[in-house]
């Protein structure tokens, strides 16, 4: 029997739970993608708010979603591997599973325009044609995508025409329109706005920020991690994560310095913009690997005694992700409590932490009585419909 089918990879559940909690904290300080700075705060609070904002985005911005992408690719391998051992080809069923995920993502997008489920559902199809390729071939494809080839073309064009004036990213215009419906008291208008204007803006931003190639690349790296059993406890896996931690930490420092220095070093927007996109994706990848390595090493070191607190959360990560969007939009948007007008990062961090604790208790209670989360169960049953 495959090591992936029994026993369960509890470290993966815990890591996924850690990612969803960190995402929740970011969503809260962003007012769930409605950026607004309240003006009625005590004089000492704006500075503290900025410190909290900068710290959380340094730790988790662009990294938590990358952890999710890595585990998405890993899960694809686990399911494919289990079916292959039964003589089945999982790729067709996976395509159907992605369509179901798209449906869940559209429901979530009605409440929160920044939803990633729809993005993963679309980009996940890239795993199907590479599922049977060799490790070496998949690695080189992933590396090529991670290098951001389109942005290097844009960089080359910018070097040839540095004087060209660049327009603002197209996605900005769509995000600006959110002020027409999110502050309002109509939930229907908010749903329509998020699903049309908001979703368009997010898709455009995903391309402009280099997330398309980066996400597909990390999907493939997650699949390779599954093939190499890097999340299965062993001396080889432990050695891999220690080496990865060292190399990723070393790589992150210059990448972070370059990312923050480029705006001051390069005057030409045509050169600066693609270069920032390239270095930002690499910097986020490096720090994501630092987070994953530290988590896996610590989980192994303490036999999961501390970090298993995230396990139940991770087992029902999609349910928790959608639940937090519904609750968060009610807390901050105009159709609900409208707290975006009164809460800076400190207040939002406290709210987000409270919600995470409540969801943690709910997840623990639910998983004691059920095999899967509520939406995970529906997703699983629909995935295997008409299957023997």
Overview of the molecule:
The chain has helices spanning 10-29, 45-60, 64-84, 91-111, 117-123, 135-146, 149-160, 170-176, 187-208, 211-227, 235-265, 269-301, 311-315, 317-332, 345-369, 374-383. The chain is mainly alpha-helical. The protein has one domain (10-380). The two termini are 20 Å apart.
State the main characteristics.
388 residues; mainly alpha; globular
- Cα-atom Rg, whole angstroms? 21 Å
Shape: globular
Largest sheet: none
Q: Helix fraction? A: over 70%
Euclidean distance between termini CA atoms: 20 Å
State the order of secondary-structure elements, H for helix, E for strand.
HHHHHHHHHHHHHHHH
Number of helices: 16
Spans of at least 5 consecutive residues whose pLDDT stays below 50 are 1-7
Count of the domains: 1
Number of strands: 0
Given helix and strand content, the structural type is mainly alpha
Query: pLDDT average, as an integer?
Result: 94
Percent range for β-strand residues: under 5%
SSE diagram, text form:
Blueprint: H1 10-29, H2 45-60, H3 64-84, H4 91-111, H5 117-123, H6 135-146, H7 149-160, H8 170-176, H9 187-208, H10 211-227, H11 235-265, H12 269-301, H13 311-315, H14 317-332, H15 345-369, H16 374-383
Helix pairs in contact: 1-2, 1-3, 1-14, 1-15, 3-10, 4-5, 4-9, 4-14, 4-16, 6-10, 7-12, 8-9, 11-12
